[in-house]
Amino acid sequence: MDSTSADRAVRPEDLRCLADAERAAAAVLPAAVRDFVAGGSGAEVTLDANRTALDRVFVVPRVLRDVSGCTTGTTLLGRPARLPLALAPVAYQRLVHPAGEPAAARAARAAGVPFTVSTLSSVPVEALTALGGDVWFQLYWLRDTERSLDLVRRAEDAGATAVMLTVDVPWMGRRLRDVRNRFALPDHVRAAHLEEGPSAAHRAPSGRASALAAHTAAVFSPALTWSSVEALREHTRLPLVLKGILAAEDAVRAVECGVDAVVVSNHGGRQLDGALPSVDALPDVVGRVAGRCEVLMDSGIRCGTDVLRALALGASGVLVGRPALWGLAAGGEGGVRRVLDLLADEFRDALGLAGCPDAAAARELRTVRRDG
């Protein structure tokens, strides 16, 4: 975001809902960057379906319950959080604002929720854990296995409190917006954990893939298997989370491998187009896991009512990705704080109106799915 765009940035207090943050970000971001954040893979069927599926979930509220002391706190991976929510791993945050990941991490710390630093972060994990707060490290499995394990050791040494292995990216999905825009990273943005200088991600692409897709295809391993998960489980003492689970059978296998949590996710509609919406996969995963690990959900969360829906369907919490990035683009750290404040206010409102004195009570609510 250049200085001219910064001059057009809105005041965080003017944002009244997460859609306002998205509109404000669209006004300041270059079109290609906006498309990189907003876009999905293929015809974006799954991207759109994530939102549609959430809006088909209706909660049956309870009444005549004392909600005068309604609280939103919970625990995630055994640690307290003020909301059943964590910031999802999002790559290259300095693309949307010079303050990048540190601004988002500070906002998460202030909100009392975990921040997840991506393997493709534009700022190294050490700089983010140094800010305090609860920091999780997301890992893409690399072609060089030892390098993958080195990144985990590095995150542990830096003070990360969990490792999140993304399991649905043997390579990057074909994101047509990026292909059409011939999207490449600007020179000032890099994957801080993978290279010191410009890489293939910075060069104008050729053929059918974006520069980022070409770069990640060169470094991500398509040979990630359950044996890799087992090796990682043996390698780290930290809580282990698998992100990208849709099949209940895979969730059961994850439990058998000793993971502490799974994230029911279709990568925000950015991987397999036509994949099941996350919220539709959630109940089956929760049922099959049967309390043996935590179940989180992402892909499409856009308001506090969505958090309530996820909890009512059995999730322990949710991950939020794009809305935080829109807030960052619109107003830096203050924009992310505003997004998280809005989610906190909306979630508390939804809890109380549903007759829930706390987040745990939301998991006892009944839901009805209305199709069509």
From TrEMBL:
GO terms for molecular function: FMN binding; oxidoreductase activity, acting on CH-OH group of donors. It comes from Streptomyces venezuelae. Its cofactor is FMN. CDD domains: alpha_hydroxyacid_oxid_FMN. The active site is at H267. Belongs to the FMN-dependent alpha-hydroxy acid dehydrogenase family. Residues 10-372 form the FMN hydroxy acid dehydrogenase domain. The keyword Coiled coil does not apply. It holds the Pfam family FMN_dh. Keywords: Flavoprotein, FMN, Oxidoreductase. InterPro entries: Aldolase_TIM, Alpha-hydoxy_acid_DH_FMN, FMN-dep_DH, FMN_HAD, FMN_hydac_DH_AS. This is Alpha-hydroxy-acid oxidizing enzyme. Gene3D superfamilies: Aldolase class I (3.20.20.70). Glyoxylate binds at Y140, R175, H267, R270. FMN binds at residues 89-91, 118, 138, 166, 243, 265, 298-302, 321-322.
